[in-house]
Design goal:
The protein is of the alpha+beta class. The strands form five sheets. The protein has a four-stranded mixed β-sheet with strand order 3-4-6-5. Helix 3 packs across helix 16 and helix 17 crosses helix 20.
Length: about 700
């Protein structure tokens, strides 16, 4: 993942995008009409999950737990597949998207005369599916890299290697790239941030309840080093050294909670000369030159204590330990492009040991994941030609406008906010930019050279191409037409630096959005998603940015205190949820998402009421419109996890588990209690002193 997208993910608190955003050099997007050379067999696609009256579990009470009442029968009938660690509505849509891409990739690969994006997709696909050639090559594709690492016997050589490997798009110990300047969001600047850990968060290196994962990680490191040609005894010793190396990095790193709850930690502008003084063993001036980037007046050396520790480690950590660390991460990072033993070991740790996935994904799915990581928007340009009707974009425009109108009214009617702050909030509301389906301009992929000789070579070429493209933005104006997710991604996001809400094509399907559904289902589904992303502009981090995307305090001190007090009540609510015995949700880590869920659902409900006006309630299947709205919302959180993945989510993810998101926001809304005649004291009706109202 490019650094800029990592920062955007932290800012928006939405799930990590896995594909590069479009480049500044672009071509006008064609409308998504099916091209004659591309066709999709719908019979090979999974059907989306829709709410049905038969889903409701009569053995449960909706006023006790909305999510269980709506989703438990579906869970009982739909086990988590062996090749997944979670299963639910988003997973079904992700599988559906992959199945579309599967057909597109095969068609692209079969065209011997293909050029442009079809050639790129076809080459990545064809080489990735050539298992015999990949197995025959073994570790040969990494031979030069491993030889270079073996020659690193001085701090100067190690620092030089960190520069050259980064310039090839293979940075290991820290992330580097372009993002909008937090104080001047119309211009891009360079950011360097912490990285380098093989476990999800720093706590995995210190917490007693995670010792089993650290032990599994050490065994995995040793196995990877053995596969790379290191003798077993030496590999075991080197694995121990790598753990010690990363533990030291972890001690100097900030936690996920710290980074999610204080976006300013990413923005530490400094001159390269001053940065050199902080890291005397690693010259940032030389680093910029080695990346082909003009040395700037300033860049953001985010998490400076981390970089200072890396500098110290260059001087005092034995070269052999650096070699072991770099050798392991080089091989592990390339494992999915190498022969079967490397792929199998990667699965054993990253998928099986860490998140409880029982079976390896089929090769075609793994290759498509790689295609999306390397050339996601190229695939997306093909995807929207066959999988996204123009009707959906038009209807989404109307839904977004409905949510905008409702949100404006909610801001205007806030009782706890002063007129001065409210004026600023409305200015931000007025400048929201929605993006729906696919980019208005497509990224220009000319310059990326791929072929049919080597899967790893194609992946590396794409990695270098994307890295150089990203670096090319440093010091230049921000291109506001860019997207941070590909159209085939089942997700959405808010970017506070551009004050934009983005909804890729693949999420615009049931149960989130159905062009043939009634208002209740669409507002409860995609309406709540739209509202969620808009409210991210006013969560505890998004609210630190003004209408132009600059990090500016636009709050009066009294309003800021009021907002914090209300947010604290939401933190306490989610701290009370127990995901597994003794494993509680982290209300602070998940605060941004929970604020967005609460405000987004309330706004979506208001928008639905505005949309239906005085129209009679159709009482579909005997259910009122309001009941269907909340059932539609709960259906969108029809997701479950393996026990191992659940632990990773609770410990390191800014999103609470889905079952708590299904009940957290509705339990604060009087409209929910009224819709189902719930009484005070029932679990889905929070007492007046515990009820949370923010936006």
């Amino acid at each position: 993942m490019l650094l800029s997208l990592a920062i955007a993910a932290a800012l928006s608190a939405c799930a990590k995008p896995e594909t590069p955003a479009p480049a500044a050099s672009a071509q006008t997007a064609a409308p998504p009409a099916a091209a004659p050379t591309l066709k999709i067999d719908e019979s090979k696609l999974l059907q989306p999950v829709r709410f049905a009256i038969g889903d409701l579990d009569a053995s449960k009470n909706v006023c006790d737990d909305l999510g269980q009442y709506v989703n438990d029968k579906w869970f009982a009938a739909n086990a988590i597949p062996g090749d997944r660690s979670s299963w639910g509505v988003s997973d079904v849509l992700a599988e559906r998207s992959l199945a579309v891409q599967h057909q597109l990739a095969e068609q692209a690969a079969q065209d011997a005369n293909a050029g442009g994006i079809e050639k790129i997709v076809g080459d990545l696909w064809a080489t990735g599916m050539d298992e015999a050639k990949i197995n025959a090559q073994g570790i040969e594709p990494l031979k030069n890299d491993l030889s270079a690492i073996a020659a690193l016997d001085t701090p100067e050589k190690i620092a030089a290697y960190l520069r050259t490997s980064a310039a090839e798009g293979r940075g290991v110990i820290f992330d580097f790239g372009a993002e909008a300047d937090f104080k001047n969001s119309s211009m891009n600047m360079a950011f360097a941030t912490q990285s380098g850990l093989g476990l999800p968060d720093k706590g995995y290196y210190f917490d007693q309840d995670k010792r089993d994962k650290q032990a599994a990680y050490q065994q995995h490191i040793a196995k990877v080093l053995e596969l790379s040609g290191t003798a077993a005894a030496d590999a075991a010793a080197q694995a121990k050294a790598v753990i010690a190396f990363e533990t030291r990095l972890a001690k100097a790193s900030l936690s996920r909670e710290q980074l999610q709850r204080d976006v300013a930690l990413y923005y530490q502008p400094i001159s390269p000369a001053k940065a050199n003084e902080l890291t005397p063993n690693f010259s940032w001036t030389e680093f910029f030159k080695s990346q082909g980037v003009e040395v700037p007046a300033q860049f953001s050396l985010a998490m400076p204590d981390f970089h200072k520790e890396v500098s110290k480690m260059l001087a005092d950590t034995p070269a052999a330990d650096w070699q072991a660390y770099l050798r392991y991460h080089t091989v592990d990072g390339a494992s999915l492009y190498l022969s079967d033993p490397f792929v199998a070991e990667h699965f054993e740790f990253h998928s099986k040991a860490m998140v409880g996935q029982k079976e390896q994904k089929a090769r075609w799915k793994r290759v498509l994941n790689a295609v999306n990581g390397s050339a996601g928007e190229a695939m997306g340009q093909l995807y929207v030609k066959v999988a996204f009707p123009q009707q959906s974009k038009a209807q989404m425009d109307a839904l977004v406008q409905g949510l905008r109108t409702a949100l404006k009214a909610r801001i205007e009617n806030l009782s706890w906010m002063s007129a001065d702050t409210k004026k600023k909030a409305l200015e931000k509301w007025a400048s929201f930019t929605p993006k729906i389906g696919y980019p208005d301009k497509w990224r220009d992929w000319s310059g990326l050279k791929t072929g049919r000789d080597s899967y790893y070579a194609n992946a590396l070429a794409a990695e270098q191409f994307n890295y150089k493209w990203n670096l090319g933005k440093i010091g230049k104006p921000v291109d506001k037409t860019e997207w941070g997710m590909s159209p085939q991604t089942v997700n959405a996001y808010y970017n506070p630096l551009q004050n934009e809400v983005v909804f890729p094509a693949a999420i615009l399907q049931p149960p989130f959005f159905d062009p043939n559904a009634d208002e209740a289902m669409n507002y409860g589904g995609i309406g709540a998603v739209i509202g969620h992303e808009m409210i991210h502009g006013y969560d505890d981090q998004g609210s630190r940015f003004d209408p132009s995307g600059n990090m500016v305090n636009w709050w009066t001190p009294e309003d800021a205190k009021g907002f914090a007090a209300r947010s604290t009540k939401l933190i306490e609510q989610f701290n009370g949820y127990e995901a597994a015995p003794g494993l509680h949700v982290n209300g602070k880590l998940t605060l941004g998402e929970n604020i967005a869920d609460l405000g987004g659902l309330a706004t979506a409900y208001d928008a639905m009421r505005l949309a239906v006006g005085d129209k009679p309630d159709p009482k579909t299947d005997g259910l009122t419109r309001d009941q269907r709205f909340f059932y539609g919302f709960a259906t969108s959180w029809r997701d479950r996890y393996t026990p191992d993945l659940l632990k990773v989510i609770v410990n390191s993810n800014e999103h609470a588990p889905a079952n708590f998101r299904a009940i957290g926001a509705p339990s604060n809304l009087p409209a929910f209690a009224a819709a189902f005649s719930c009484k005070a004291g029932q679990p889905m009706v929070r007492a007046a002193d515990k009820q949370v109202v923010i936006w």
